[in-house]
Amino acid sequence: MSPPLLKLGAVLSTMAMISNWMSQTLPSLVGLNTTRITTPDTLTQISPKEGWQVYSSAQDPDGRCICTVVAPEQNLCSRDAKSRQLRQLLEKVQNMSQSIEVLNLRTQRDFQYVLKMETQMKGLKAKFRQIEDDRKTLMTKHFQELKEKMDELLPLIPVLEQYKTDAKLITQFKEEIRNLSTVLTGIQEEIGAYDYEELHQRVVNLESRLRDCMKKLTCGKLMKITGPITVKISGTRFGAWMTDPLASEKNNRVWYMDSYTNNKIVREYKSIADFVSGAESRTYNLPFKWAGTNHVVYNGSLYFNKYQSNIIIKYSFDTGRVLAQRSLEYAGFHNVYPYTWGGFSDIDLMADEIGLWAVYATNQNAGNIVISQLNQDTLEVLKSWSTGYPKRSAGESFMICGTLYVTNSHLTGAKVYYSYSTKTSTYEYTDIPFHNQYFHISMLDYNARDRALYAWNNGHQVLFNVTLFHVIKTEDDT
Questions:
Q1: 342: left (phi over 0), alpha (psi -120 to 50) or beta
Q2: Alpha carbon 64 to chain centroid distance?
Q3: Where in the cell is it found (predicted)?
Q4: Which CATH number fits domain 221-469: 3.30.565.10, 3.30.70.260, 1.10.760.10, 2.40.128.630?
């Protein structure tokens, strides 16, 4: 048999096998004969387990609150497996559709070749008849060759008819797959919409539970410090900036106090945005110079350490007057017991969720840190705790929920190294690193409203986000 005929025979034989495979196997692969789709009406929901652990952190630069919730493991809905099976079936049908399309392209190409051969066969048959009518005029040898070629082509005629049938079958399969894909896509869209409604309801329920949960939060324990976020670059190497933790949500005033001594000017800005742009709204000229950088604004008043003394001043921004002043008994001042960076940082005033605090050192406590809770109106010491941590070894410190957190340095590699709980009168050594990006911190204070640490870092005003671990009160708690 000549090479062209061998090629044609191979093509037709292959197509016959493909036709047989498609008619027997393809329907079961795409699920036309056995697959049954379950409707969403048969789905059931398994309620999530109870109990939550809530982590909360600070606001981002846009003012949005960042709250992290560690929720218990959720059970899967029983219909999740059905949805997964549906997606897998749809993917299988789509893959099969692509395979059929490739096969169809090949079939069309071979089909054109066969049609060409059919035309040649018909022409050859006509010529053969003509030759047979006039065979007496031809040589016997040529007649015999033509007759052999005709005999070879005659068996291909029924195969060609089968090939035409197979081509029609492929077209039918393409149409069935297209219809099945449409049906599966519709079912998936229905289930998807059903999932969205249920998910939305779960989110609403979760928000409600979180609101109830937040009402039951006890004070948090510091777990992590992230950042910093650089808000502005201004001023000298040392200074302080702050907002009022007791101000309303609409009151976002910022106060700015440059340098650690020889200054009485406090600058006020209506918002963080104004602070960044330098749009100052008001300037206050204090009656006394301040010492250090450890001031605090609390409930509309500024609390600061009067220069060259252990006297604490309460100054009202609204009236522009000193409302109270009191000597902090035995407290060292004027670089007797400062933080490691110096700067007359002997007395550190701060506020947290519980109230107003003073952190300092005394000779009676051998230069170790003393924590005193203050009456915000009279500045009277309500209660004091003596720690064993040397004040001069501390880089900076801040209070969160009645616990003092002390950093081991004000320079590179700083971390929260020590904490003292006023609730239990106990201490522990910790290891909570944070990024001292500009290498010299001269002010670090916690703001309970923003859940953030305000810092003055080598002439950069920055914010650190904090992650706190809260314990949820139960009905059994007293």
A1: left
A2: 14
A3: Secreted; Synapse
A4: 2.40.128.630
